[in-house]
Design a protein that fits this description.
- The protein has 333 residues and is of the alpha+beta class.
- It has 5 helices and 17 strands.
- The protein has helices at residues 34-44, 46-53, 92-104, 191-208, 255-267, and strands at residues 4-14, 17-24, 63-68, 77-83, 115-120, 123-132, 135-142, 147-157, 161-169, 173-177, 222-229, 238-244, 248-249, 277-280, 286-297, 300-309, 311-322.
- It is globular and about 55 Å long.
- It binds pyrrole-2-carboxylate.
């Protein structure tokens, strides 16, 4: 007998990048922390992610989340991120979209209106949101500790030649490519070029280096590439195009990417605690970032960053994953 699984989903976008919250059909996950539950999901239930994220039910940029009860009663809820790139330890645009959906659609009932404590696989994230009537107008998250993991690494890719890059962590590891002799800036390239160059660069970096989070060894590997360049709006601080998965450029300014970049700027002395960091995405949408606190991670200097942005809910989806469909687990071309 073929089996059929039904998932209720609510769809939104955060500054242009999609977020699909699974509001019905969420599976039971074994584990005592969100990092353990993430591991259990990846080992046993990853077909739910691929079925809901990839074509024909999703697309290259699709990302989403599932909500769980918190493990610590002090917190409001726990979250699993499901994306075309896998189950990210943390996702900023995913958090902004999820909170907007969860509050507007009544999936979460905060003990203190306007504030939530969220357990992500990467650690505790504090959320503040502003509401006008039923609508959530903005979401600010105070992210996990972020730091510059490596500076001035040399690497060569066929398309550009020799590059000097930095690697920073903001909930995921980012290879940051700033304008330099062989890379004039993201504005000189089409999205497809940035994607294929980033795929090559990420693979070369991961063959040469092994980035492991000093406090959580399950968080390892460079998953994202950030190309930087000139801003579209002169009043913005910086612009980026973040590559993730195999074919995606984030339409939002990327929350964990913005955190990683603020950690990089802090380490280089370009950003001070409290300064506003207006980060533009590839399409020109903006997040406002700030260094909330200076900290350390396993003896290395780091920051606690915050990111603020908005999301819009746009639809309800009942999605069926039926084993008699040859593409039940999605596909990539
Ligand atoms: O906002 O952190 C983020 C993110 C990661 C991948 C896509 N968006």
């Amino acid at each position: 007998m073929p089996s059929r699984h039904t998932f209720s989903c609510i769809d939104a976008h955060t500054c242009g990048n999609p977020v699909r919250v699974v509001s019905g059909g969420v599976p039971f996950l074994k584990g005592n922390t969100m990092l353990e539950k993430r591991q259990y999901f990846m080992e046993n239930l990853d077909w739910i992610r691929t079925g809901l994220m990839f074509e024909p039910r999703g697309h290259d940029m699709m990302s989403g989340s599932m909500l769980f009860p918190p493990h610590d009663p002090e917190n409001d809820f726990a979250i699993l991120f499901i994306e075309t790139s896998g189950c990210l330890p943390m996702c900023g645009h995913g958090t902004i979209g999820t909170i907007t959906i969860a509050i507007e659609e009544g999936l979460i009932h905060p003990r203190t209106p306007g504030f939530l404590r969220m357990e992500s696989p990467a650690g505790l994230v504090l959320v503040e949101y502003k509401q006008e009537g039923k609508k959530v107008k903005s979401v600010k998250l105070t992210n996990v500790k972020s730091y510059l993991a490596a500076e001035n690494l040399e690497i060569e890719i066929e398309e550009l030649g020799k590059l000097t890059v930095d690697v920073a962590y903001g909930g995921n590891f980012y290879c940051i490519v700033d304008p330099q002799e062989n890379f004039p800036g993201l504005e000189h390239f089409k999205a497809e070029q940035l994607i294929s160059m980033a795929r090559n660069l990420r693979s070369k970096m991961n063959k040469r280096y092994d980035f492991i989070h000093p406090e959580h060894d399950r968080i390892r590997g460079l998953s994202h590439v950030m190309w930087t360049g000139k801003t579209l709006d002169q009043s913005s601080t910086a612009r980026n195009a973040v590559f993730y998965g195999d074919k995606a450029i984030d339409r939002s300014p990327c929350g964990t990417g913005t955190s990683a970049r603020m950690a990089q700027w802090f380490a280089k002395g370009w950003l001070k605690p409290g300064d506003e960091f207006v980060h533009e995405s590839f399409i020109g949408s903006k997040f406002i970032g700030r260094i909330e606190e200076v900290t350390e991670i396993a003896g290395q200097p780091g920051i606690v960053p915050s990111i603020e942005g908005w999301a819009k809910v746009y639809g309800y989806n009942t999605i069926i994953l039926d084993d008699d469909d040859p593409y039940v687990h999605g596909f990539q071309v």
